Amino acid sequence: MSDVVLLVVTGLGLGALYFLAASGLSLIYGLMGVLNFAHGSFMVAGAYAGWLTMTGLPDSLGVGVRMAVAIAVALAVGALIGFVVEAVLIRPLYRRHIQQVLVTVGLSLTAVAAVQGVWGSDAHPLDKPAWLAATTDLAGAEVPNDRFLFIAAALLLFGGLLALLRFTRLGLVIRAGVENRTMVEALGINVQRTFSVVFAIGGAAAGLAGLLAGVYANSVSPLQGGSMLIYAFIVVVIGGMGSLTGTAVAAVAVGLVQQLANYYAASGVGDLSVVLLLAVVLLVRPASMQGAH
Amino acid sequence: MSRHLKALPALGLLVLLAYLPYLPVELPGLLPGRVNGPGSMQLLAICLTMAGIALSYDVVFGRTGLLSFGHALFVAAGSYLTAIGMASLGLPLPLAALLALVGTTALALVVGGIALRVGGIAFAMVTLAFAQAASIIVLRNPGDVTGGEEGRSLDRDLMPDLLLGVNNAPYRYWLALAFVAVAWLAVAWLSRTRAGHAMAAVRENEARAAVLGFDVYRAKLIAVVVAAFLGGLGGVVHAVVLGGSNPHLTTAEFTLSLLVMVVLGGAGSRWGAVLGGFLYTYADSRLVNLSGSSLLESLPGALGNVLSQPLFVLGTFFVIVVYFAPTGLTGLGHRVLRRERVE
Amino acid sequence: MTTTTTTSARRQEAQPILRVEDLHVRYGGSHVLQGVSFDVPATGVTALLGRNGVGKTTTLKAVLGLAPRSGGVALAGRDVTRWSVTRTVREGVGYVPEDREVFGGLTVEENLRLVGGDVGVDAPIVGELFPDLVRRRAQKAGTLSGGQQQMVALARVLLRDNRLLLVDEPTKGLAPKLVTEVADVLARVAQTTPILLVEQNLPVVRRIADTVVVLDAGQVVHRGPAEELVSDPDLTRELLGVSMRREARQ
């Protein structure tokens, strides 16, 4: 029983990280038709910004405070980079989806190489507060506390995004744009402005995901973003591309499947079963996966 | 111009390249040592192999318009199945290569069959996921057949002597050159068949291709399978040239680099893909040597370190090409030629 | 703008609201519009007619900037060809597309607020012209009938101040009673705003259109008063391939 609890909670924690990474991807894809390969770079940027903040702040501040500041910095850096990438690289290639993808591919190569050039290709250890490294007894299972942090962050983001989509003018335009962007423009609404915001939100979430993935792994490294990104892509596809709720459900499913299969079958089987899950979903309901563009 | 005349430049280049192993001149800065020295021959062999693999990728991307992020899967399958066939099954190289090609083609039918149920960007994501699955398997090293992070060497006892050792680098070079020629001819032949016309129609406009009576799904599947076959063949040659399989072949980064090569050279053109593959691989390997150069040392620390990363330079260059020369280097060349003719 | 108000107001009578000159559209290899020229007068309904596939929808899209165009498009004398779609709409060109294209996942209210901002179905014009929509404000637009969706598509453009409306086949697929309702609404709107209307239903054209422009194979083949065309069965058959009588019986 305690095994199951532990696996479910850690699976949910992993799913939470996937959701943080995938929600921005899904919104960007749904609204703009851009498959953003640079999303992994946003994660790396958030992770390194957080790590630099942690090491840059005086030790006297205490790990908890430094971590809190690092999270804020990761969010801000992610948002800023997302905003700038959209404005400088994506916008000039308006509606040329393949070229937009290619530019983000180039950017992902360049960014990882730049990080390797400046900070080396090795992983850098990331401090975390003692309470985050400790475990909590939950129905007999010793659950690492950081999993709760991931779940809380994902729930906050999910709730915040849902509220944004439902209750704000921006959210209304985004929902309409995901359905039919051309028609939104043909009603005289400037969709371009929402692109910048969506990229900034996605970037902030990715920055946070990057830093939290660093907390998960106890270190930051240049290649972390790339491997997270692939699972985030899978989550986006299974979730129906552009649907926030679908993305959330898919993130949880992928996290749980991965953890459970890795434990009950063999290490590595979980990762494969995620791909298998994707194949099954595609075979069962291919039509819903075509995306809006 | 007749078809035969058009083939002249390619044929001339082939003859010239085939002659290189007899050329004992030095090209300082461009190649390590003499052109026919083992260092240069090995470098050129790798560049040619990648040129052929880029050409195979262009069948799906440039000719059919399918953004596949899973092509690495097929190249890796060709390479690994050869290595495994020799080491685990004790097959001689030709049989292992045959096994690899059959295996790769079968894999392409399955993966393509599933992934092509979705289109556009979703297809890209699904192919990426399949390639990732392969990458995971290779790294987990089930039953010790893939060698995990170390990769897998080809069993030297089962290799023809001609392809082994430093001094036989020219033979590996010729093998790579032959691979490029075969891939070139195969793609040229394919583009003249009905399947090739269907692919071109799908690339231009999928809905219209269907209206014109082409079986779109079939055309795409043929593209994926032919590309995988040629990519698998490239994987076999890659394994022979490098003496084994390396998990780098399975990574998403490898597929992305294929995409970069094709776009750099010019998608949908044989010259473009081959040129892009060759130059990218060459630059990737030579830029590493630049990192110790005095020019970079004179730059302030971080900037020098960043510029010494080949992928930083290539990635930046790639972004510039996407913006300013979307038809790639060959497209740029065509434009310059046309302007000259007009003036 | 303000400095020229007096002179342009005086010219308003003569100046067409929309002038299309030598308009070309190419999609991939096909040349859909091959030099289309016509004027839309500043009052009344101008019907754009022609057989299926002659480029009527493409003409509307090209005017708005939704299709890749070359040639001249002028709104009240101002060149719009360098404007974005969004700017063209904001300058007063309202667009009601073929097949409605309402946002199915959004409620009626949300569909209207997209354009109206703070006001949706509570706008006076909605209550006046589309009372049914007020009752259905909370319903998802995707669950509405075709006629109701057409009302949403019309209502949302009317929430903006338009100088010209582009309306594409608003009665397509509707029951006869709804066809009449839509035609009523268009007739009411046309009292204040000129309309360029693509319409296959000739009785509707006869009822509300003042001027007709007929396209064939990407070119204008006829221009004139609506009455002249619809009252001449031979001309109708020649230009549109339909007979007025058969059309009327449907």
Automatic annotation (TrEMBL), chain A:
Bilayer topology term: Multi-pass membrane protein
A biological process term (GO) from this entry: amino acid transport
Keyword terms: Amino-acid transport, Cell membrane, Membrane, Transmembrane, Transmembrane helix, Transport
GO MF assignments: transmembrane transporter activity
Superkingdom per UniProt: Bacteria
Pfam families: BPD_transp_2
Protein location: Cell membrane
GO cellular component, as recorded: plasma membrane
Transmembrane segments: 6-27, 34-53, 65-89, 101-119, 148-174, 195-217, 229-256, 263-284
CDD domains per record: TM_PBP1_LivH_like
Family in the record: Belongs to the binding-protein-dependent transport system permease family. LivHM subfamily.
Protein name: Amino acid/amide ABC transporter membrane protein 1, HAAT family
TrEMBL record, chain B:
Signal peptide start-end: none
Superkingdom, taxonomy of origin: Bacteria
Keywords tagged on the record: Cell membrane, Membrane, Transmembrane, Transmembrane helix
InterPro entries registered for this protein in UniProt: ABC_transp_permease, LivM-like
Stored CDD domains: TM_PBP1_LivM_like
Compartments where found: Cell membrane
GO MF entries: branched-chain amino acid transmembrane transporter activity
Topology within the bilayer: Multi-pass membrane protein
Ranges that cross the membrane: 7-23, 43-60, 72-89, 95-116, 121-139, 171-190, 221-242, 254-281, 302-325
Main location: membrane
GO CC field: plasma membrane
The protein's name in its UniProt record: Amino acid/amide ABC transporter membrane protein 2, HAAT family
Species in which this protein is naturally found: Pedococcus cremeus
From TrEMBL, chain C:
Keyword ATP-binding included in the entry's annotation: yes
Key words of the record: Amino-acid transport, ATP-binding, Nucleotide-binding, Transport
Gene Ontology terms for molecular function: ATP binding; ATP hydrolysis activity; branched-chain amino acid transmembrane transporter activity
Example GO biological process: L-amino acid transport
Any one Pfam family match given in the protein's UniProt record, by short name: ABC_tran
InterPro entries with a match to the protein in the record: AAA+_ATPase, ABC_transporter-like_ATP-bd, ABC_transporter-like_CS, BCAA_Transport_ATP-bd_LivF, P-loop_NTPase
Entry keyword ATP-binding: yes
Positions of the ABC transporter domain: 18-242
Membership in a protein family: Belongs to the ABC transporter superfamily.
Name by which UniProt lists this protein: Amino acid/amide ABC transporter ATP-binding protein 2, HAAT family
Species this protein is from: Pedococcus cremeus
